[in-house]
């Protein structure tokens, strides 16, 4: 891989850039970025990472092995309309990280045999811990999928799924870090309410999340079994969990994921051809 072109230079593009550079997937100069209008942002990324920045679409796309669409879904049509006039060749893989938007919509703006791959990473790409799912469009072959999977594997784990799973993926792992940060926020606030010093609670909470994730990864037990192992009858965990049950927290989490998946589906329907 010699060149990756990002169309969109926001939070998610930066997370991927950071990860790709840390993983030495390609030299920083081989990572090209453009955005809509914010010159200062492009300069900032160039200064921070040594990436190449441009406003010239021909330069951006020329010889790019992979083109990553990383603007917000609302800006997709404008970006795709301008890509329509670009002379992409069928070896260039167009990857979209946009929530909701189907490969068929993207393909409708691109040459008829263009390989398109939909990917859903998350912000943990910044520290090479992303969970990414990738799904092939109709012209993306197994070699294209290998290239894209290996790109996302440099910034964490990547799994290939059918496109119909992408709304669920987006709701679970795309948005997932935000749910966990929400829980951490609540736990931090609760720590201070029960009298724990902020720096101590932060240290304990980070290690508690890390340890719980590693336990699930390294043991054969389910989350329910791991939880049961901590919950002695009449003990502290039982006292806490009974409040979560009374307040319907599990149902609220399930409703949260369903709402996120429904929103992804709705966004896909808004952008269909
Ligand atoms: N944030 C997350 O956790 C995740 C986000 N995603 C997806 O990633 C995408 C980007 O999100 P995020 O990085 O948070 O968004 P940001 O708002 O941070 O960045 C959007 C970028 O797109 C640029 N842009 C807008 N219009 C165009 C255009 N016509 N041509 C080129 N560039 C354009 C903006 O430029 P300018 O600043 O000049 O306006 C900006 O650089 C979204 O589609 C989202 O669904 C996927 C997984 C996780
Ligand atoms: O909220 C969003 O739209 C994006 C998609 C996945 C995570 N954040």
TrEMBL record:
InterPro entries: 6-PGluconate_DH-like_C_sf, NAD(P)-bd_dom_sf, P5C_Rdtase_cat_N, P5CR-like_CS, P5CR_dimer, Pyrroline-COOH_reductase. It is an enzyme of class 1 (oxidoreductase). Residues 3-100 form the Pyrroline-5-carboxylate reductase catalytic N-terminal domain. It catalyses: L-proline + NAD(+) = (S)-1-pyrroline-5-carboxylate + NADH + 2 H(+); L-proline + NADP(+) = (S)-1-pyrroline-5-carboxylate + NADPH + 2 H(+). Gene3D superfamilies: NAD(P)-binding Rossmann-like Domain, ProC C-terminal domain-like. Keywords: Amino-acid biosynthesis, Cytoplasm, NADP, Oxidoreductase, Proline biosynthesis. It is found in: Cytoplasm. Residues 163-267 form the Pyrroline-5-carboxylate reductase dimerisation domain. Pathway: Amino-acid biosynthesis; L-proline biosynthesis; L-proline from L-glutamate 5-semialdehyde: step 1/1. SUPFAM superfamilies: 6-phosphogluconate dehydrogenase C-terminal domain-like, NAD(P)-binding Rossmann-fold domains. Its EC number is 1.5.1.2. HAMAP family: P5C_reductase (MF_01925). PANTHER family: PYRROLINE-5-CARBOXYLATE REDUCTASE, PYRROLINE-5-CARBOXYLATE REDUCTASE 1. Catalyzes the reduction of 1-pyrroline-5-carboxylate (PCA) to L-proline. Belongs to the pyrroline-5-carboxylate reductase family. This is Pyrroline-5-carboxylate reductase. It comes from Terribacillus saccharophilus. The gene is proC.
């Amino acid at each position: 891989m010699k060149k990756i072109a990002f169309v969109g230079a926001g939070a998610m593009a930066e997370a991927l850039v950071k990860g790709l550079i840390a993983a030495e997937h390609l030299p920083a100069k081989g990572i090209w970025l453009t955005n809509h209008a914010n010159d200062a942002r492009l300069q900032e990324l160039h200064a921070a990472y040594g990436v190449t920045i441009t406003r010239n679409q021909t330069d951006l796309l020329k010889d790019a092995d992979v083109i990553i669409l990383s603007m917000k879904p609302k800006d997709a049509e404008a970006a795709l309309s301008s890509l329509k006039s670009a002379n992409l060749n069928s070896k260039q893989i167009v990857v979209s990280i946009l929530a909701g938007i189907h490969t068929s919509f993207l393909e409708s703006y691109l040459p008829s045999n263009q390989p398109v791959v939909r990917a859903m990473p998350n912000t943990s790409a910044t520290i090479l811990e992303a969970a990414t799912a990738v799904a092939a469009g109709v012209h993306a072959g197994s070699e294209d999928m290998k290239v894209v999977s290996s790109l996302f594997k440099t910034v964490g784990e990547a799994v290939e799924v059918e496109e119909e799973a992408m709304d669920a993926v987006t709701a679970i792992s795309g948005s997932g870090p935000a749910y966990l940060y929400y829980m951490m926020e609540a736990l931090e606030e609760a720590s201070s309410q029960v009298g724990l010093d902020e720096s101590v609670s932060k240290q304990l909470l980070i290690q508690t999340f890390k340890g719980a994730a590693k336990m699930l990864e390294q043991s054969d037990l389910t989350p329910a079994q791991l939880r049961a192992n901590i919950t002695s009858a009449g003990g502290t965990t039982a006292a806490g969990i009974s409040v979560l049950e009374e307040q319907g927290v599990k149902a609220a989490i399930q409703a949260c994921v369903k709402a996120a998946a429904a929103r992804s589906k709705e966004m896909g329907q808004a952008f269909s051809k």
